Amino acid sequence: MDMDMSSDTSTDTSRDTDTGPTDTGTDGGVAALHRLIRPVTDFIGAQPLDAALGERLNRRFPADGPLYAQVLDLCRAGLREGWICPREHGGIRYGRVIPPDQALGGFSVDIVLMKDIAGPRHRHPLGEIDLILPVSGPSGPARFDGHPAGWLVYGPDSVHRPTVSSGEAFVLYLLPQGQIDFH
């Protein structure tokens, strides 16, 4: 399966980042997402991308906290309005919402929507930070790579085949410099 999410760079990063979370649509939604993710990337700073960072992110921005709820609401609105996950391949909806942005520490923001499926194997040259946002599940919330709602960090040069099991989930990916290598 050839699914290169890194080529989806059509989003304009010069948008006004002061737009409120109720102002959705492409411009307002992207600006609201940018504003919500900024404290996360500021917190990440120059910390190494490893499991310890995932633990710190889960304490600072927990799955039962306001940032998580706002991001999930924005993902649902963005899907309805068509400004997230505009592409589909093999049953996976995906897209780059924000290209690498210095205001976000050089991270890009990609979002996928997956339901009981394994995606294409890929490598993270500089690492990957995931926010797992389950939407539904037949016996509880869906899981991503075996993990529940919250943050998951893959270190530099890690490889995986992203898998959502037991339901459907959005996964928001922060990619340093937007780097991802599909095999």
Protein architecture, described:
There is one protein chain. Helix content is 25%, strand content 34%. With 183 residues, it is an alpha+beta fold. It has a single domain (5-182), classed as Jelly Rolls. Strands 1, 2, 3, 5, 6, 7 and 9 form a 7-stranded antiparallel β-sheet that branches. It has a 3-stranded antiparallel β-sheet with strand order 8-4-10, with no helix packed on it. A hairpin with a 2-residue loop joins strand 1 and strand 2 (92-101). The chain starts with 24 loop residues before the first helix and ends with a strand. GO terms for molecular function: lyase activity. This is p-hydroxylaminobenzoate lyase. Residues 1-29 are annotated as: Disordered. Residues 1-12 have a biased composition (Low complexity). Pfam families: PnbB.
Text of the CATH class: Mainly Beta
Helix content estimate: 25-40%
Could you report the average pLDDT, rounded to the nearest whole number?
86
SSE ordering: HHHEEEEEEEEEE
CATH architecture: Sandwich
Region (Disordered): 1-29
Protein name: p-hydroxylaminobenzoate lyase
Keywords: Lyase
Organism: Castellaniella defragrans (strain DSM 12143 / CCUG 39792 / 65Phen)
Tell me the layout of helices and strands:
Blueprint: H1 25-44, H2 51-60, H3 66-81, E1 87-89, E2 92-101, E3 107-118, E4 122-124, E5 128-136, E6 143-144, E7 150-154, E8 158-160, E9 163-176, E10 181-182
Antiparallel strand pairs: 1-2, 2-3, 3-9, 4-8, 4-10, 5-7, 5-9, 6-9
